[in-house]
Write a structure and sequence with these properties.
By secondary structure, this protein is an alpha+beta fold. Strands 4, 5, 7, 8 and 9 form a 5-stranded antiparallel sheet that branches. A 5-stranded mixed sheet has the order 10-11-14-12-13, with helices on one face. A two-stranded antiparallel sheet has the order 1-3. Helix 5 runs antiparallel to helix 6 and helix 5 crosses helix 7.
Length: about 375
Amino acid sequence: MKGRILLVLSLLLVSCSQEGLSSQSSRNTIHLPSFGEPIQIHSQLQQDYLDFYFDSTYDALAHPEVDGSHELSHPDVLTLSWNDDEQHDSYSFLLSQDRLLSNARIIETQTKSISLTNLEIGKKYYYQVKSGDITSDLGEFTIAADGPRNLFIDGITNVRDIGGWKLADGKISRQGLLLRGGRLNASYKAGYESKHIEPEEVIPEITAEGIKEFKKLGIKTEVDFRTNDRNGYPEGVSPYCVVDGVDYVSLPMNGNASISDNGESVKAFMDLLCDESKYPFYIHCNIGTDRTGMVCYLLNALLGADEKTLYQDYLFSNFGKIEGTRSASNKYNTYFGLVDYSGKTLMDKAISYFESIGISKADCQKIQNKFWE
């Protein structure tokens, strides 16, 4: 008899629980969109370049708009909109790569839409919308895996992640560890165009909104490859990061971006990458193309990117406002070249180069393990 009573009570509890869920479900007035295909972060012009304009001879970009004088480097913005059977004054938007929404990014909005940028490529995201006691079902979408992961940080041009590329042996480089781009502060008094005017004060170019995004990305260390006489800091002022709380490291490199002429700074940079406490990094020179491009070429070669990927990434800088264009035809095996170093693969040649400037194979392996997913 006692067992029957307990069974009846259990059934009543289940029934009540289901009724409560049904009641809550019936009050779920927020309806999310569905996505059948991965979402592309690249603008149509960028995607056209990645699909068609990059030819196997590593020639310059073929599109007339991409001439380095316009800001075309930003990714597309993903706008998510939802329907609501009721009218609510505000919503909380939760976003995470975890289905359980752990450590979710929460964005408050008074509209029935949200704009997202700087999402990681090749990743699935889960999201939910809440208002008061109403919670939507769980939504999901996937970002297309096509590299590069270009980013939008207001006030900075030519920003992208060194990670997200498909590498040898099926590996993929980890995102969010090292971002590359243009300068954070003007190199001269009036910026790059007035390059021989000595600065009287430090002039940030990253905006207040850009600083918010910089901090959201968790950057801990800024590495500046500009020479000390052209880095935008007046004489007598110790260089610092214009974003509060970010460490500043100066590793001056010659503007020719030669791997043989800049070995000392390259070694110092690789030593930094061996320090876990410094991540994530933001690295730059003036426009984030040549000296920065050379460092990224070496690092991605070490990680196992193929030659086409390396030059495809290098030429993507033409979408930034870099005051001119770059062509790989005059850089191949000379500008960033590893052709003179021993090894069967590009990775082997990169290791040989790093050993020649004092980086051990053990440290090369440590950096590889850090960046390999």
